[in-house]
C-alpha cells in the first residue's frame, strides 16, 4: 500500500551521514551552487594581497558582486524549494474534483467518509481497547485531540463539524435554548425544532458539496435534513436509536458500491452508543470500555471493507467525535436557589443548556441584583463556577455574537454541577459533558486515513528537521510530530477546521465562510 511504502522506513528519521548527504544533494542547486560563490570568496581572498598593492580591480569587484548575487539567488531558491518541496506534486494531491481513479475494476472520484463517534473522549484511545483505531491512525494519522466548540454539547458541535462555525455563528448555542426573536425554544429531541431549517444557520458541508455537483449521503448526522436555502443531502437516513453498527456499515458500503453516476463522494455517519454509555455509567465504566471495543471493531470492519475494494488510495476516512465525557457520579452540587434566593430563582424565565446554564430572567425581575448575587457567589466559590455576561465571556469561546446566547451564563468547573435544592442530584447521569472546552476531559478524537494522510506523511518527511541545513532554512515544523512507532500525531486543533479539510479533499474551491483558519491545512497539503 502506498501509505506504508512511503512511510514505514524508520531509517528516514535517523539523521545519518548518508541521509544528510542525500539531503544536501536534495538541495541540488543549494549544495552545488554554494560551492560557486565560496570559490569566488576564495578567489577574492587570494587577490586580497594583490589588492593591497593595486586596490580593487574591476575584475575583483565583478567577482565579488556576482558571488554575492549567486549566493542570494541560491539561498532564495533553496528556501523556495524547501518550503514548497517537489513532493507537493504527490499524485494524491492532484486527485480531486473531476479526477477519476480506478480501484482495479471501477472508476471512482475522490471520496470522503466522515464518521462521528459521539462522546469519544480523546484519551479513550490510550486505554489499550482500540487497537484497530490506533492501527488505522498508524497507517494514517491522528491528533492528540480535536477541540470542541463551547458549549461542549452534541448538537452545537456536530453543527460546528458540518459548517466550520462557532455556536454564535451557526446558531445552535445549546441542545436546548430560547430564541428571543422567534420567541420559541429549540429542543434537540423535538422534530418541530430539530428539523426546522430556520434554527440552523451556516452552510453544512453537504450543501457546499451539493452546489459543486457532488453527490452526498447523510446517515443520521445530527442536524436538519434540509437547510434554509432548501438544500438536502442526496441520500439521507434520518436519526433512529439503537441501530446496530453492522447495519450502519452495510448502509455505508451500499452507498460506496453504487454505480459511478449515483455514488456519493461525501458520506457522513453518526454513532451515539458510546455517548449513551458514558452518560449512563460514566467514562471510567466497564460499559464505556465495552462500547469502545465495539466502536473499534466497527472502525476495523469499515477499514477492511474499503481495503477489500482496494479503495485506500481513493477514500479518505475521517473519524471524529463531538466532545469528551467527565465523571459526574459524585459531583459537588451548587444550589442556584441558595444563591439567588427563592424569589430570584423563581424569576428565571428560561434556563438554556446544561451543565453550563444560560439564564434569562423575567421582565419584572431585578436582573442586576441577581447578577450581583451570582457574581459574588462565584467569586467566593474558589473557582467552582464562574458567571459571565456577553461582556465578560472568555474570547476563546466565541460565544457572544448571537441573540440566542442568554445574557448571563453560569459555567461550572469539571466536578461541579448546578442544580436546585428540590432537584438535587435526582436523575443525574454518571457522565456528563458541556463544560469548558479547555478541559482535557471534554476533548474529542481525530483519526484519519486515506490518500490525504499519505500526502501528510510525505510532506512531513520532506519538511522534517532531519538535517542541520533544513533546520536552518525551513520554518519550524509546527503542528505535528511522529512518535517512535511512526504514528503521526497532530497537535490538538479546533473542530471548526474540519469543514475546510473536507472541502480541500474534495477539491471544492467555492466554499462557505467559516471560523476556521484560512491557511490551517496549507502545511498538510
Ligand atoms: Zn455528543
Mean pLDDT across the residues is: 84
Instruction: List low-confidence stretches.
Output: 1-56, 465-478
Percentage of helical residues?
A: 25-40%
As a percent range, the share of strand residues is 15-25%
The neighbouring-strand order within the major sheet is 9-8-10-3-11-20-4-22-21
Q: Which structural class should the secondary elements be placed in?
A: alpha/beta
Number of helices: 17
What is the global morphology?
Answer: globular
The main β sheet shows up as: 9 strands, mixed
GO molecular function, one term: ribonucleoside triphosphate phosphatase activity
Protein name: Alkaline-phosphatase-like protein
Biased composition (Polar residues): 1-10
Transmembrane segments: 61-82
Explain what this protein looks like in three dimensions.
The chain has helices at 2-7, 17-26, 29-54, 58-83, 131-139, 154-163, 167-170, 191-194, 205-211, 245-256, 273-281, 286-308, 336-346, 367-380, 451-463, 468-473, 498-506, and strands at 101-102, 107-108, 111-117, 141-143, 146-147, 176-179, 184-187, 216-219, 235-237, 266-271, 315-320, 326-327, 332-335, 348-352, 357-361, 385-389, 408-412, 416-419, 431-432, 446-449, 480-482, 488-490, 493-494. Helix 3 packs antiparallel against helix 4 and helix 5 (131-139) packs across helix 12 (286-308). The longest helix is centred in the N-terminal third of the chain and has 26 residues, at 29-54. The protein starts with a helix and ends in a 19-residue tail after the last helix. It has a nine-stranded mixed beta sheet, sandwiched between helices. A four-stranded antiparallel beta sheet has the order 14-15-17-16. By secondary structure, the chain is α/β, with parallel strands linked by helices. Zinc ion (ZN) binds next to loops.
Amino acid at each position: 500500500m502506498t501509505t506504508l511504502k512511503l512511510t514505514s522506513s524508520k531509517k528516514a528519521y535517523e539523521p545519518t551521514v548518508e541521509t544528510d548527504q542525500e539531503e544536501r544533494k536534495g538541495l541540488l542547486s543549494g549544495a552545488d551552487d554554494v560551492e560557486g560563490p565560496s570559490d569566488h570568496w576564495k578567489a577574492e581572498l587570494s587577490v586580497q594581497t594583490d589588492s593591497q598593492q593595486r586596490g580593487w580591480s574591476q575584475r575583483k569587484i565583478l567577482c565579488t558582486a556576482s558571488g554575492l548575487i549567486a549566493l542570494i539567488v541560491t539561498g532564495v531558491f533553496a528556501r523556495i524549494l524547501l518550503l514548497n518541496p517537489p513532493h507537493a506534486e504527490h499524485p494524491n494531491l492532484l486527485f480531486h474534483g473531476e479526477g477519476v481513479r480506478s480501484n482495479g475494476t471501477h472508476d471512482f472520484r475522490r471520496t470522503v467518509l466522515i464518521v462521528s463517534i459521539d462522546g469519544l473522549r480523546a484519551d479513550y484511545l490510550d486505554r489499550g481497547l482500540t487497537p484497530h483505531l490506533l492501527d488505522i491512525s498508524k497507517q494514517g494519522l491522528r491528533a492528540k485531540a480535536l477541540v470542541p466548540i463551547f458549549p461542549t454539547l452534541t448538537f452545537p458541535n456536530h453543527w460546528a463539524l458540518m459548517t466550520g462555525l462557532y455556536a454564535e455563528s451557526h446558531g445552535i448555542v445549546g441542545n436546548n435554548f430560547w430564541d428571543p426573536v422567534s420567541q420559541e425554544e429549540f429542543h434537540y429531541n423535538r422534530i418541530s425544532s430539530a428539523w426546522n431549517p430556520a434554527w440552523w444557520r451556516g452552510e453544512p458541508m453537504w450543501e457546499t458539496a451539493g452546489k459543486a455537483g457532488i453527490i452526498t449521503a447523510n446517515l443520521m448526522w445530527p442536524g436538519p435534513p434540509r437547510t434554509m436555502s432548501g438544500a438536502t443531502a442526496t441520500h439521507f437516513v434520518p436519526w433512529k436509536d439503537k441501530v446496530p453498527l453492522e447495519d450502519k456499515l452495510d448502509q455505508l458500503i451500499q452507498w460506496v458500491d453504487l454505480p459511478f453516476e449515483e455514488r456519493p463522494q461525501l458520506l457522513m455517519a453518526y454513532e451515539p452508543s458510546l455517548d449513551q454509555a458514558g452518560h449512563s455509567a460514566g467514562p471510567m465504566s466497564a460499559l464505556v470500555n465495552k462500547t469502545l471495543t465495539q466502536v473499534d471493531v466497527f472502525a476495523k470492519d469499515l477499514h477492511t471493507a474499503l481495503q477489500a475494494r482496494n479503495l485506500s488510495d481513493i477514500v479518505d476516512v475521517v473519524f471524529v467525535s463531538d466532545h469528551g465525557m467527565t465523571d459526574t457520579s459524585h459531583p459537588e452540587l451548587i444550589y442556584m436557589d441558595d444563591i439567588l434566593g427563592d424569589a430570584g430563582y423563581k424569576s428565571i424565565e428560561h434556563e438554556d443548556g446544561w451543565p453550563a446554564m444560560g439564564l434569562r430572567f423575567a421582565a419584572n425581575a431585578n436582573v442586576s441584583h441577581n447578577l450581583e448575587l451570582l457574581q459574588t457567589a462565584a467569586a467566593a466559590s474558589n473557582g467552582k463556577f464562574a458567571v459571565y455576561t456577553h461582556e465578560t465571556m472568555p474570547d476563546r469561546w466565541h460565544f457572544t455574537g448571537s441573540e440566542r446566547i442568554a445574557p448571563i451564563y453560569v459555567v461550572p468547573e469539571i466536578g461541579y454541577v448546578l442544580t436546585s435544592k428540590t432537584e438535587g442530584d435526582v436523575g443525574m447521569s454518571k457522565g456528563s459533558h458541556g463544560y469548558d472546552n479547555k478541559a482535557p476531559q471534554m476533548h474529542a478524537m481525530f483519526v484519519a486515513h486515506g490518500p490525504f494522510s499519505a500526502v501528510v506523511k510525505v510532506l512531513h518527511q520532506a519538511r522534517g528537521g532531519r538535517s542541520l541545513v533544513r533546520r536552518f532554512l525551513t520554518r519550524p515544523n509546527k503542528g505535528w510530530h511522529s512518535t517512535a512507532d511512526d504514528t503521526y500525531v497532530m497537535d490538538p486543533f479546533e473542530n471548526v477546521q474540519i469543514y475546510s479539510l473536507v472541502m480541500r479533499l474534495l477539491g471544492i474551491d467555492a466554499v462557505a465562510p467559516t471560523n476556521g483558519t484560512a491557511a490551517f491545512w496549507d502545511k498538510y497539503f
